[in-house]
Amino acid sequence: MSDRLNDDTLAELAGGVQRPSYDRRILRTGIVHLGVGAFHRAHQAVYTDDVLARDPDWGIVAASLRSPDTYDALQPQDGLYTLSVRSQGGEALRVIGSIQRVIVAPREIEDLLDVMADPQTRIVTLTVTEKGYCYDPATGALNEAHPDIVHDLAYSMNPKSAPGFIIEALRRRRMNGVAPFTVLTCDNLPSNGRTVKRVLTRFAELVDPELGRFVADEVSCPSTMVDRIVPATSDQDRERIAEALGVTDAWPVVTEPFTQWVIEDRFPQGRPAWEAAGAEFVSDVEPYEHMKLRLLNGSHSTLAYLGYLAGYETVADTMADEAFVRLIRGLMDEEVTPTLHMPAGADLESYKSALIVRFKNPALKHRTWQIAMDGSQKLPQRLLGTIRDRLSNGASIGRLSLGVAAWMRYVTGTDENGVAIDVRDPMVARLQEIASQAEGSVETLARGLFGIREIFGDDLPATPRFTSEVLAHLTQLYKLGARRTVSEFKAG
Ligand code: CS2
Q1: Of 77, 112, 345, 378, which one's alpha carbon is 20 to 30 angstroms from that of 442?
Q2: Is a pLDDT exceeding 70 seen at residue 47?
Q3: Phi, psi dihedrals of residue 158, rounded to the nearest 5°
């Protein structure tokens, strides 16, 4: 077996592999990151790696809030890992050095709170996925009945959830007279900064009303739009990358050439010069966020449910079917674009054309099953917000409602051949209870799922144009299957 990637073997790496251009030993920790998954390592950690040579104050301590897997892979590597950028044109490898240390939160609670409370830490970034915020997807308010929130309010010094860690760390900073860090969410939530601020303020209020006022008045939560497609790493990726490096990397991350980060510039304690790495600082992220969530993620979820049901393993496989390309292009051009209000100079046409190319990238094995996860948390901002805008203008929702119907068909947990689907969703028990109670009636199934207020709110289930279109598509999906439904799709 070859050596492991780490500070000692860095110098031995095969030629052509880019490596940190700065001295890692002099880094100081300026950022704590919560949720050290592949996305963070292919996005914010890379932007930060780009600026450390000029400013060593922004090293990252990254925490997993649940599993020790990333720690186990990265700790023996001194936090180093490989970023593989893949396209049809080939693969470029780069070793990223910005993560100084990985912490497994459940077993090192005090360590994590210490570093979060340290005055040197000035930003806490997050990629904990939609469900990690413990909020109600339909209203964006803290879900006070969430088991982790109930736990964290009862034992606030021993938190489990992201809001629990942040508020306890802010409480300690306030007690010590240390200014609060900036909270920078990098998840695909609607109005992500505002949502996080709302969730944190409410949580703090429940701990102590004065702390609530402090969070409301003093803590900055800029909104961000983050974009880079990062599929789960496979064993094949690991083998290919080890071969190319000449050393073993237990957990490289694989991504596409495209990357984008749009951030509201509200960092009272300072920030890295991420613009030097290509980040865009703006005063209002919302138009970019709508563009990205509705065009990219809305298409992604639609492709994931329909593609999975049609028997396609990856997004690229799905996009090799021209009928799906037509559907997605129509979804973007005719149903999403009219709902967007972009600042002058934004080029939606090139963004959409680039999206089609990105989805088709055959070098990325982005499984439809992966994107299909957690639909209950994703549907509102990816499809339902657009549907509401369209309905209020009396405009068509044919493709958007087909996406919703495909989600309904998918979460029943049985595919078109009668084979079980491994549905991953925080609401999976409720979804499958509804499916089993429907006893084969498509109408009862749809009615049951529309009744989930946390997803559909009170308005959509009471809007016959919406419910009847979804039901018609769902009926079609059962009758014809996903492939024929897509190939025979006609805009109404
Ligand atoms: C995907 C996103 O898994 C998913 O739900 O839609 O992770 C998507 O790849 C990123 O948002 C792209 O920026």
Answers
A1: 378
A2: yes
A3: -125, 60
CB 270 within 8 A of CB 288: no
Compute the radius of gyration of the chain from its Cα atoms: 23
pLDDT at residue 49 is higher than 60: yes
Looking at the structure, tell me whether residues 277 and 298 fall in a common domain. no
> What's the gap in Å between 470 CA and the centre of ligand 1?
24
Same domain, 319 and 257: no
Residue nearest to atom 10 of ligand 1 (CA): 229
User: What is the pLDDT, as a whole number, of residue 345?
Assistant: 86
Nearest alpha carbon to residue 449 among 421, 410, 476: 410
Q: How many CA atoms lie within 13 A of 321 on its CB side?
A: 23
25 and 163 share one domain: yes
Q: What is the mean pLDDT of residues 209-228?
A: 98
Cα–Cα distance for residue pair 310/489, rounded to 1 Å: 14
**How far is it, in rounded angstroms, from Cα 101 to Cα 153?**
28
Whether the per-residue pLDDT at 1 is higher than 70: the answer is no
What CATH number does the domain containing 35 carry? 3.40.50.720
* Shared-domain flag, residues 308 and 276: no
Tell me how far apart the alpha carbons of residues 466 and 348 are, in angstroms, rounded to a whole number.
Answer: 27
| Mean of pLDDT values over 393-401 | 98
In a shared domain, residues 277 and 296: no
**Is the CB of 371 inside a 6 Å radius of any atom of ligand 1?**
yes
Question: CB–CB of 63/34 below 8 Å?
Answer: yes
* 362-384 mean pLDDT: 97
Q: With a 6 A CB cut-off, is 297 part of the ligand 1 pocket?
A: yes
Q: Which of 362, 374, 360, 350 is CA-nearest to residue 324?
A: 360
| pTM check: above 0.85 | yes
User: Residue 94 pairs with which residues in a beta bridge?
Assistant: 18, 83
Distance in Å, CA 209 to ligand 1 centroid: 36
Q: End of a domain among 233, 258, 282?
A: 282
CA 3 to chain centre: 33
Q: Which long-range contacts (CB under 8 A, 24 or more apart) does 465-469 make?
A: 465/391, 465/397, 466/387, 466/391, 466/397, 466/401, 469/397, 469/398, 469/401
